[in-house]
Amino acid sequence: GLAGFGGLPGPARAETLEPNSWEDVTNYCNYYEFGTGKGDPAQYAGQLTTAPWSVKIDGMVERPGDYDFQQILGEMTLEERIYRFRCVEAWSMVVPWTGFELADLLALAGVKSEAKYVAFETLYRPSEMPGTAYRVLDWPYREGLRLDEAMHPLTLMATGIFGKDLPNQNGAPLRLVVPWKYGFKSIKSIVRITLTDKEPQTSWNMANAREYGFYSNVNPEVSHPRWSQASERRLGGGLFASRQDTLMFNGYGDEVASLYEGMDLAKFF
Amino acid sequence: MIDAINTALRRLPTWVLYLLGSLYPVWLLYLGMTGGLGADPVKALEHELGERALQLLILGLAVTPLRRFVGVNLIRFRRALGVLTFTYVALHLLVWLLLDVQIVSQILADIAKRPYITIGMAGFVLMVPLALTSNDASVKRLGRKWKRLHLLTYPAAFLGGLHYVMLAKGFQIEPLIYLTVIVVLLALRLFGFVVRSFVALRV
After folding, report:
1. B99 closest CB neighbour out of A28, A230, A239
2. Which residues form the Ferric oxidoreductase domain (chain B) (predicted)?
């Protein structure tokens, strides 16, 4: 991988991006386990117990088991990454994450050579998650990446924002951040990571395969069936801000375009 | 109890409704410009106006059944409810056009290609002649035709409810509740119509 943050080329560098406010990032969230309103997670996620926390890593790994979150933290080197965050709903923010590369966590468990995909699961705990009373999605929330996407140095496991621990509404204590994909790929409050040789099922794809593909790379040329993805509302600019053009791979094309060489991105959307 | 409500309602001038109904969007605009609508004021304004329009629409549709089945008489306010519904739908559309999508080519493409937008636009278009004829002069001039024309309220209401259901992500309850209430209110009219025809035939 690239040597920490300094080694990342142009678009991923921090100084070019101005983060959104703490208020924006922590009060405007999609975390349907706490309700479908943007303010619901901030309002209801406080009751979520995030300590103790462990992540089950299983499937095609050398050392399967329950990994305690504090133990994981002890093994990892945290760094800050300021990324663009583009929601499939055509709004975007800039978030200063703290975290470590997913590749490092996977190395801890030892990925077997036959593994081709990584599947993730969010905590499903109805007693603390009022939104799960409704079957908005088929709980638990599931996501997945191809192994090369998971091993990419931009792919982050975030444990904090703005140098502080992740607030519950942002996916405490541990979430994925894949900056070149739509936000819903960046699964929150992870309790399970499974290495597999089959493309895993993912929640939004299960809910509506026509609208949400497995890859869900940010792509201004492939519209969502219900809205264009060519441009986005960059939050933080107020009521009269202009829309901005959406960038291919959310501006991380130099780093990740090679992962998809030869693929028809309109078909594998 | 019902009499007391009706007496109180009779004392309430309709201009109060128009005044409150016009102040509310101004208040929302003020909130949006001063950070009171959160991180995404454009969507907040757009959704709030849309949802309020649906609530006004439902209230307007409820006027007749409320009088018939409950005895509460809101008939004096029905025009105000209709005009305010149209105003909120028009403002909802304006926010979408000017503050949200902004780009003319994309607006046209959206209207043509995205069914939920096509349906929302169709609902709005159906409401235009209703808004234009919501005055005493038109009622007088159109006579019986006025009542026929205003039957357009029913398809417009249905399209509005459908528009909301179609834009939800995942399986969401709230839009379905709105659509159900609208469908029930429309069905009550159909039911009333069938009963009246049946009675007429018997007589």
Report:
1. A239
2. 59-160
- Where helices occur in chain A by DSSP H, the ranges are 22-27, 40-44, 69-75, 102-109, 147-151, 203-207, 253-256
Which chain A residues contact residue B111 at CB under 8 A?
none
Q: What domains are there in chain A, each with its CATH number?
A: 10-260 (3.90.420.10)
Strand partners, A177: A156
Out of A39, A134, A207, name the one closest to residue B38 (CB).
A39
Cα–chain-centroid distance for residue B114? 22
Enumerate residues 6+ apart whose C-beta is below 8 A from A51: A69, A173
pLDDT tens for chain A, residues 1 to 269: 344 444 454 445 545 799 999 999 999 999 999 999 999 999 999 999 999 999 999 999 999 999 999 999 999 999 999 999 999 999 999 999 999 999 999 999 999 999 999 999 999 999 999 999 999 999 999 999 999 999 999 999 999 999 999 999 999 999 999 999 999 999 999 999 999 999 999 999 999 999 999 999 999 999 999 999 999 999 999 999 999 999 999 999 999 999 999 999 999 99
Q: Which of B80, B102, B93, B105 is nearest to B46 (CA)?
A: B93
Look up residue A35 and give its two tokens.
């309700």
The token duo for B41 is 């004021």
Q: pLDDT-based confidence at B115, cuts 50/70/90?
A: very high
Contacting residues of B for A91, CB less than 8 Å apart: 40, 43
Q: Say which residue the tokens 């159900």 belong to.
A: B180
Q: Which residues pair with B145 in a beta bridge?
A: none
User: CB under 8 Å to B108, separation ≥6 — which residues?
Assistant: none
> Taking a C-beta distance cutoff of 8 angstroms, is the pair B99, A239 a contact?
yes
Q: Could you report the per-residue pLDDT of B40-79, keeping only the tens digit for each? A: 999 999 999 999 999 999 999 999 999 999 999 999 999 9
Q: What is the DSSP string of chain B?
A: -HHHHHHHHHHS-HHHHHHHHHHHHHHHHHHHHTTTT-S-HHHHHHHHHHHHHHHHHHHHHHHHHIIIII----GGGHHHHHHHHHHHHHHHHHIIIIIII--HHHHHHHHHH-HHHHHHHHHHHHHHHHHHT-SHHHHHHHTHHHHHHGGGHHHHHHHHHHHHHHH-SSS-HHHHHHHHHHHHHHHHHHHHHHHHHHHHHH-
